[in-house]
Design a protein that fits this description.
36% of the residues lie in helices and 17% in strands. It has helices at residues 41-44, 46-56, 83-93, 123-132, 145-148, 162-169, 200-212, 226-231, 242-255, 279-283, 294-297, 313-317, 320-325, 366-374, 378-381, 406-424, 437-442, 448-460, 465-482, 489-500; strands spanning 5-13, 16-26, 32-36, 65-71, 105-107, 110-111, 117-118, 137-141, 155-159, 216-219, 270-271, 284-285, 291-292, 302-305, 327-332, 335-340, 344-349, 386-389. Residues 212-394 form the AAA+ ATPase domain. This is YifB family Mg chelatase-like AAA ATPase. It comes from Pseudonocardia spirodelae.
Length: 504
């Protein structure tokens, strides 16, 4: 029996890659291919794809017993990304291909029966894991080369077929390299805040939400600008740094949403699923491998739920854990995967089912009105920091000065964010909304006269302890926007105003 050949690929567990060593042994029994190491159905079918691809690439398939072992053996291996590595492993074990160039090389790609190399999902997180494991090179389908080129410190090669990879491994040709174009996404044209007429309270709440990373609920009749305002939050948020952009791109890659340009977008994402979306579409899931949902695609950005009372109550309540923990956990028979989900939630709702332009024209019965907004459960609303009631627009022409534009408000938001980062960065927090309430009360305590309104509402039962902590975070954001060192009584009162404004 020949000694085992070893090649490398990468498995995906959620959005994290796990390097997989593939050992191939030929001989010692009846002809056949045996895969070990917890392969799923798609991977088990790779035996037929790999054999046909090797034969159609002009190479002989060993007519002997072939054992392919994927390690770590206890990790479930899913998908077709291992096809290329399996083919190379068999041919190296058969001494048909030299192993020199394959050392320290991650191999990813699905094989067609004629030997063509097809793209697979999750190339970016796989190669990030390969780089962390010390690998120096990667061979991927040519279509995935722009995505692979986003990983610094690892040389990525692209191929259109198995035959090209075999010739490269033998030293007879060069593989494709990324030409460097498209590394940065083209500037996006974002909606302008000055286009929103009136709604001073809502505009101020939007600025506070952007400055502190707070969640926001807007309640008002149709046509008051709720959706317009929500779409303009992204223009106020700071750009993503490279690590954040890579993390978001990795999530999009696993979900199949990265596109084929390989451009790395630094604009915070804005995700607005329809209210008919399922729990799996919102939170993540699906049969077999649990894929990321809208909450993860909105990571480090905005998740906007329009007409939120039309969402099933159980689906909305599923947001409670990611809102608190910044990640979503999806459990399946094969284990639990975690996807990042640190997003800002923006909710929009009509005041009642009939939603007339003027509230006095409402024809809904009181119980119907209560049931309509009752789909937003108390525990969910308790996690929403800012609530604003929006009035109907009463004029189409601007009689005075237009509202501030996006650039003006964004400068204030970035200054407030910088103040929060300077204060919290040593503790690992990036904005006021992420700071635990206990830390606010112990490390940065405020005088009793400043906290008096919060304590009064706690004693009367109007405010929960979580609600008080969230109001305190908003007060810190208001302080940062004002350029103050710490909140005063005015900021606490304003935080309570915005927490209670949409309670009706």
């Amino acid at each position: 029996m020949r000694p085992p050949a070893r090649v490398w690929s990468v498995a995906l567990h959620g959005v994290d890659g796990v390097p997989v060593e593939i050992e191939a042994v030929i001989g010692g029994g009846m002809p056949g291919v045996h895969l070990v190491g917890l392969p799923d159905a798609a991977l088990n079918e790779a035996k037929d794809r790999v054999r046909s691809a090797v034969v159609h690439s002009g190479r002989s398939w060993p007519n002997e017993r072939i054992v392919l072992a994927l390690s770590p053996a206890t990790l479930r291996k899913t998908g077709s990304r291992f096809d290329l590595a399996l083919a190379l492993g068999v041919l190296v074990a058969a001494d048909a291909v030299p192993a020199d160039r394959l050392r320290g090389t991650a191999l990813l790609g699905e094989l067609a029966l004629d030997g063509r190399l097809r793209p697979v999902r999750g190339v970016l997180p796989c190669l990030l894991a390969a780089r962390e494991a010390g690998m120096e090179r990667a061979v991927v389908p040519r279509a995935a080369l722009p995505e692979a080129a986003l990983v610094d410190g690892l040389t990525a090669y692209g191929a259109d077929s198995l035959a090209e990879v075999l010739d490269w491994a033998a030293g007879n040709r060069l593989l494709h390299r990324h030409d460097g174009t498209g590394d940065a996404a083209a500037p996006q044209s974002l909606p302008e805040l000055a286009d929103v007429l009136g709604q001073e309270d809502a505009r101020h709440a939007l600025e506070i939400a952007a400055a502190g990373g707070h969640h926001l609920l807007m309640i008002g009749p149709p046509g008051t600008g709720k959706t317009m305002l929500a779409q303009r939050v992204v223009g106020l948020l700071p750009d993503l740094d490279r690590d954040e952009a890579l993390q978001l791109a990795a999530i999009r890659s696993v979900a199949g949403r990265l596109g084929d340009t390989g451009a790395l977008s630094t604009v915070a994402p804005f995700v607005a699923p329809h209210h008919s979306a399922s729990a799996a579409a919102l939170l993540g899931g699906g049969s077999g491998v649990a894929r990321p949902g809208a909450v993860s695609l909105a990571h480090r950005g905005v998740l906007f739920l329009d007409e939120c009372p039309h969402w099933p109550a159980a689906v909305l309540d599923g947001l409670r854990t990611p809102l608190e923990e910044g990640e979503v956990r999806l459990s399946r028979a094969d284990g639990t995967v975690r996807y990042p989900a640190r997003f800002q939630l923006v909710l929009a709702a009509n005041p009642c089912p009939c939603a007339p332009p003027v509230d006095r024209d409402c024809t809904c019965r009181p119980d119907a009105r209560r049931r309509y907004l009752a789909r937003l459960s108390g525990p969910l609303l308790d996690r929403v920091d800012l609530r604003v009631a929006m009035a109907p627009v009463t004029a189409l022409r601007v009689t005075g000065e237009r509202g501030e534009d996006t650039a003006t408000v964004r400068r204030r938001v970035l200054d407030a964010r910088a103040a929060a980062v300077a204060r919290w960065s040593e503790f690992g927090w990036r904005c006021n909304a992420e700071v635990p309430g206990t830390e606010l009360r112990t490390r940065f305590p405020l005088p009793g006269r400043v906290l008096a309104p919060l304590e009064a509402r706690l004693r009367s039962g109007e405010l929960s302890a979580r609600g008080a902590d969230r109001a305190l975070r908003v007060a810190w954001t208001l302080s940062d926007l004002a350029g103050a060192e710490r909140p005063g009584r005015g900021q606490v009162d304003a935080a309570l105003y915005f927490r209670e404004r949409g309670a009706a």
